[in-house]
Amino acid sequence: MQATLELGQKPVGRLLWQYALPAIVAMTASSLYNIIDRAMIGQVVGPEAIAGLGITFPFMNLSAAFGAAVGVGASTCISVKLGQKDYKTAEHLLGNTVTLNLVVGFLFMVACLTFLDPILRFFGASDVTLPYARQFMVVILLGNMVTHMYFGMNAVLRAAGKPRHAMYATLFTVGMNILLVVAFVWWFRWGIRGAALATITSQSLALCWQMWIFSDQRELLHLRRGIYRLKADLVRNIMSIGVSPFLMQTTSCVIVIFMNNQFVHYGGDMAVGAYSIANSMAMVFFMFVMGVTQGMQPIVGYNYGAEKYDRMMRCLWLAISVATFILLVGWALAMLFPHQIARIFTNDPTLLEMSARGIRLDMLVFPIIASQAVITNFFQCIGKVKISIFLSLTRQLFMLLPLAYLLPLLWQLDGVWYAMPMSDFGSFAMTWPLLWWYLKKLKAYGK
Amino acid sequence: MENKKVIINIGRQLGSGGHDIGRMLALDFNAQYYDRELMNLAAKESGLSEHFFEQHDERKSFFRSFLHLPNGISTNFDRQGFSQDSFFQFQSEAIRKAADEGSCVFVGRCADYVLRDYQNVVNVFITASMDFRVKQVMSKQNFTSAMQAQHFIEQGEAKRADYYNYYTGKKWGHATSYDLCIDSSILGLVETEKFIAEFIRKRFDL
Question: How far is CA B38 from CA A302, A305, B9, B94, in A?
């Protein structure tokens, strides 16, 4: 508990740095990998392939949703049990996690492979993009159990007090993936399949290492016979926590499906490609912000609980400033060099032009999103979860979906693009008044 | 008989008089009584405010489960951090610390689970008929109608059970989790307390 106490004592700036850095490293690494993946596919396989890849994103979200339901749920339960020194239950939780991941991963694979084409059509695939999307997804789905296991075990590693190992696993996967993508796609010319194969292979290797750690009999928490049979109450506990990450992931899945369909409808396949290019650019910077908000969480949460409101507020302002600064850099790059950025992903003139325009429109009011994300997270940290959920849904669901439906009726393809900065601005305009209102209440309570 | 250390954990249905019985037992066995006092202890240990502990006491809601989420993707590397489960952890440590110091009576807070490896522990669960509990609750909480009181009981117990089942992996109020289960509306609070005390004396040869 010593580690927790420092949250109320150490200088806020240093704490934020200490807690945010690992998260930022992991987040940036994975978005970097995404960029290289997409750049390889766009440059080597072609512009239709990148559109096909864009169609599969909701699939990845959905798979991640099931993975997170088990992974987050299990790791939380395990860390509670370890805190209670109840090693027997913790071990059963570990075994149940393995089984659950395999079961869920397998069912997901079978269900999706059976209905692959209709699902992809529903996600917005056209005759041109469907073959690419299918090739990619077949490999990804066949390796789905590995993916689930890998993410689940990583979460458990963290819960078991081995956060460093979990970070090494992430960095290893990202690094390996980049090497393999270059080898498979650029060198061997295996096409979009090569990219999928690179993902699965690097995750398999990381999984082997994770399993090796958990098979060590000297470890407090290790795999042994008799822990794999599912126990109803453990599964229920895992799932009760897993529901919330599952819902969050499913929401983003729904949004991408809808946006992709709108882009296909108004701009054809190339527009989907442009959307996925613009998105990966925005994501690189946004992931940074996510890292900062994650680092902020324990600090704000603890100091709120300790009623050290000045420390809590200092952390909030610092996080907002840092996050806004990062997004300002991203915004400047997007406004000044959109063509150069798009050139990373493609050399097709149509797609290039469309993406450059898309990047500019998508990120038009980018910096204001920083404070929106930080404040939304702030409400979550202090237990005002309903406000937090409401705010994050405002931006993604309540604003973006209706706007992306209505605006194209006026401006066609441009309308779909306009929906993004407009929903950004709308949610920003909702977030700040809520914060002011809350801070006023807090001050009144303080007196 | 006061020389031997005894630890008495009381689980109770809402309105069954578990608090009063606990206090009487504490007097009988010269033990320290802990119920809300645990929160002060836990607060002192953790540097968090008592007010905050009261908010999280024996409660675990669906929306709070969102607290586990580091917004989307979980990469919360150094899990030395801070979440709802930290409260349970702090409280558990306060319970263990109190149990190390001497004889105690704990009411609720999963003490039976937290102290499962301790010697000289006796776990009691107190139930009572709904009529009895409604009367108890009405006199203590200033409810005017029995309906209100019953609603209050049902809601409160659902929360208690949720909390207990989640953290202990056992079933709240399930006879196998306890050494003695007793309905306090049959003998009345005073006689029930005497009966429990007798049971504890026999159990520990006091």
Answer: 19, 17, 13, 7
**A399 secondary structure, DSSP code:** I
Two tokens at A303? 């100091």
Taking the CA of residue A226 and the nearest CA in chain B, the distance in Å comes to 18
Q: Is the pLDDT of residue B65 over 80?
A: no
Distance of alpha carbon B206 from alpha carbon B203, whole angstroms? 8
Q: Could you tell me which of A26, A56, A33 has the C-alpha nearest to residue A287?
A: A26
pTM of the model: 0.81
- Residue B148 CB-density burial (10 A; 0-12 exposed, 13-18 middle, 19+ buried): middle
Which of B120, B160, B153, B128 has the alpha carbon at shortest distance from B138? B153
Q: Nearest 5 degrees, angle CA A226-CA A89-CA A82?
A: 135
With CA atoms as reference, the chain A residue closest to B88 would be A80
| B16 and chain A in contact, CB less than 8 A | no
What is the pLDDT averaged over residues B62-70?
45
Q: Which backbone phi and psi does B116 adopt, to 5 degrees?
A: -65, -25
- Measured in residues, chain B has a length of 206
Which member of A72, A161, A301 has the closest CB to residue B74? A72
Cβ contact, residue pair B52, A377, below 8 Å:
no
CA B182, chain centre distance (Å): 16
Nearest CB among A68, A89, A243 relative to B74 is that of A68
DSSP assignments along A75-123, one per residue: HHHHHHHHHTT-HHHHHHHHHHHHHHHHHHHHHHHHHHHHTHHHHHHHH
A230 interfaces chain B, CB cutoff of 8 Å: no
Cα end-to-end distance, chain A, whole Å: 31
Distance from CA of B98 to the nearest CA of A (A): 16
Looking at the complex, does the CB of residue A412 fall below 8 Å from at least one CB of chain B? no
DSSP character string of A152-187? HHHHHHHHTT-HHHHHHHHHHHHHHHHHHHIIIIII
A41 secondary structure, DSSP code: I
Q: Do B89 and A237 touch (CB under 8 A)?
A: no
CB contact under 8 A, B75 and A170: yes
- Answer whether A290 sits within 8 Å of B71, measured CB to CB: yes
Interacting residues of A287 by C-beta distance below 8 A, sequence separation 6+: A24, A27, A28, A30, A31
Quick one: which of B80, B112, B81 has its CA closest to B95? B112
Pairing of strands B121-127, B7-12: parallel
Residue B11, beta-bridge partner list: B125
Contact A178, A231 (CB under 8 A): no
Nearest to A373 by CA among A315, A415, A330, A432: A432
Could you read off the pLDDT of A20-33 as tens digits, one per residue? 887 788 788 878 88
Q: Phi and psi of B81, rounded to 5°?
A: -55, -140
Could you report the per-residue pLDDT of B121-148, keeping only the tens digit for each?
A: 999 999 999 999 999 888 887 788 888 8
A212 CB neighbour count, 10 Å cutoff: 9
Report the complex ipTM: 0.70
The tokens for A372 are 């929106």
Using a CB–CB cutoff of 8 Å, tell me whether A232 touches chain B.
no
Distance between start and end Cα atoms, chain B: 6
Map residue B67 onto helix, strand or coil. helix
- The pLDDT tens digits for B21-49 are 999 999 999 999 988 777 777 777 777 77
What was the pLDDT predicted at A217? 86
Put the strands of the sheet holding B180-183 in their side by side order.
B32-34, B104-107, B7-12, B121-127, B180-183
